[in-house]
Amino acid sequence: MISEQDLKEMESLDLTGKISRITSLLEGREQPRSFELGIFLALKMANEIREGKALGEDTAAIVAEWTQKYPDSVVEDAITHAKEFLLHSETLREKLRSGILKEDVSAADKTDA
């Protein structure tokens, strides 16, 4: 899972660094969460835009690969998260932080019990 600390560390990285960081966090994960995939997809889409490529030129292959690995609902949610992140990054960033913090508290509560 991407933690609050991961998000803080990524804020200081350039786009390529963020993509590398997310890639390393997702490697080897059998069941990544849709918002984690969405962050990755949004960063890859931003990179396409930066490089002057058409959206989907690189990312279509990524999504096609995901459809073979993950349930349709996860892929669809990841695409939705990516769009939201590109269009409303600050709002989504706050949602992610609050969700991560809630999960961190829940996980701590479970380990304390």
List keywords for this structure.
mainly alpha; 113 residues; disordered C terminus; 78% helix; 6 helices
What does this structure look like?
There is one protein chain. This protein has 113 residues and is mainly α. The protein has one domain (4-112). Helices cover 78% and strands 0% of the residues. It has 6 helices and no strands. It has helices at residues 4-11, 15-26, 34-50, 59-69, 72-87, 89-112. Helix 5 crosses helix 6 (89-112). The longest helix has 24 residues, at 89-112. It starts with a helix and ends with a helix.
SSE succession: HHHHHH
Average pLDDT, all residues: 81
Number of strands: 0
Largest sheet: none
The count of helical stretches stands at 6
SSE map:
Blueprint lengths: L3 H8 L3 H12 L7 H17 L8 H11 L2 H16 L1 H24 L1
What's the short version?
The protein has 113 residues and is an all-alpha fold. It is built from 6 helices and no strands. The model is unreliable at 103-113 (pLDDT under 50).
